[in-house]
Design goal:
The protein is of the alpha/beta class. It has a domain of about 325 residues: Rossmann fold, CATH 3.40.50.1010. It is about 35% helix and about 15% strand. The strands form five sheets. Strands 1-7-6-5-2-3-4 form a seven-stranded mixed beta sheet, sandwiched between helices. Strands 11-16-12 form a three-stranded mixed beta sheet, with no helix packed on it. A two-stranded antiparallel ribbon has the order 8-9. α9 links the parallel β5 and β6. α2 crosses α4 and α5 packs antiparallel against α6. It binds a DNA duplex (13 and 10 nucleotides) through α2, α4 and α12.
Length: about 575
Amino acid sequence: MGIKDLLRFMKPYILPIHIQKYARTRVGIDAYSWLHKGAYSCSMELCLDTDGKKKLRYIDYFMHRISLLQHYEIIPVVVLDGGHMPCKAATGDERQRQRKANFDAAMEKLKEGNVGAAVEFFQRAVSVTSSMAHQLIQVLKSENVEFIVAPYEADAQLAYLSSLELEQGGIAAVITEDSDLLAYGCKAVIFKMDRYGKGEELILDNVFQAVDQKPSFQNFDQELFTAMCVLAGCDFLPSVPGVGISRAHGFISKYQSVERVLSVLKSKKGKLVPEDYSSSLMEAVSVFQYARVYDFHGKKLKHLKPLSQNLMDLPVEQLEFLGPDLSPSVAAAIAEGKVDPITMEAFNRFSVSSRQLKTPVQSFKEQEKRSSFLLLPLSESEERINLKRSADEAIIGPESVLEEPKYSKQDLDLHKLVLQQPNKDHMIIPTSNPSLAPDNNPFKIRKTDEINMEEYGLQELKVSFETNGEAVDVTSSLNSNEPDCSESQKEGTIDLSKLDDSLIKQDSEKNREKESSVDSEDVVEIQGHVNITTKRVRGAKPRAESFKVKTSFRSSEDKKVKINKKSSILDFFHRL
DNA sequence: ACGCGGTTTAAAT
DNA sequence: TAAACCGCGT
């Protein structure tokens, strides 16, 4: 995806490099691309959700590349995708079908006994799930690899980090496959990095400063460049028919302003230009400039770039297209990988701890230890990482107790459920059937949509863990205040009532009862750390020792409807 | 020249 | 899932 044909267009500015160039600096990683590539190595296992560690090969793939970077004394900073942007919903639907079709085809081949053919189809059916992302996070934590879950687009977060000085937690370059990074204004981007660390790099400043290079960007600034990208067609806004990257570049370099290009565009191909194309374009450009990102030091959301006066004058609701604001506690919980950024369910830390970290990681570590000239700088940087992470571990502190009122409403609207991670590590026990992991919530709608695993047997999930005695029932859904529950909606219930043993149990029986009626709000304290606003389901008994979490599994159609309802300000996809 | 749709191929081990 | 490649239409 990304910007259509941008990389091909920018080819003259893209040079082969080796990541060694970034030794002793911090480099950002767009986790999605590695997760996706890694998923190929175990596509069947992921699709079928089989037991065993072969399924975790994508983790090995990822960590091998992390080790590679560390081997070259690079400090990797992994950035994962968070919630979906309000606008870019439209792409998901048809691919969903394709994926489902491929999955079914694979199952057919499997029944015929043709495993090889089945794998081919499985590879076309895999997608990156939030469960995979979460498992990765657990490993990153245990390996002391710095990571951050972006509130929305990882690209925006990476661009933000790239704008910071290294000493302030910034990064010197980004490894990704996504050309969006350039539209976001990322200084240095490395594409197509292979397993040896070779890749293709584009330095944005070189583009603007180049004198005799073919596509000339002499009079471009970052804003014009971004506008060119949007004109060429991006995930937020399809291009005007007949306009691609080349003409977009032509328009921008000729007219030197977005407004002029727009008026020329309208007079030139009037009918082809949608009514609200101008406003959509301006807003899309704004997203690339001012998207909401997580501010690591302030532990709250902020904008990629300080808002222009123009945007600051707008009422806050009008800024939702940059990504809805989140309260600091929610933003922090997301960033630290404690809650699923889409469903806002607490991650349950499924059993990655049992994973035996093996060969590649260890072998690199050994190499480092044995290599005398590497020893000093490495231990130094490792120590730095350790310090950093332990500082980050500091939680969502008491300041969140006095949450600003404006947020509590939002916490309701978006139905944020912030749960402290269960404090008993041992409560996470590998289940005999890992398919219980709620892995049908993809981190990203744009490039991936999950197969609805519940169609293949997942019905209910029971989990037990200890709370501090408070009992709440929480319905967790994207939008609890939207009543529609279509037929395709199913419910999984996480029943936390069994306090004595902390085993995750499967319960195969269906649970169709709906307890959606909600009549009161409460601030609930969980483990004395996080104060959250949530809704108490009628009938929940205070002090009862049960803790129920209902999750809603929806078809993507449902999601899309909801998202469309939400994006009242911006409907980029009215034409689709 | 450019856009664009359709087809092919690599990716992972 | 792209990206790369190709041929057609403007």
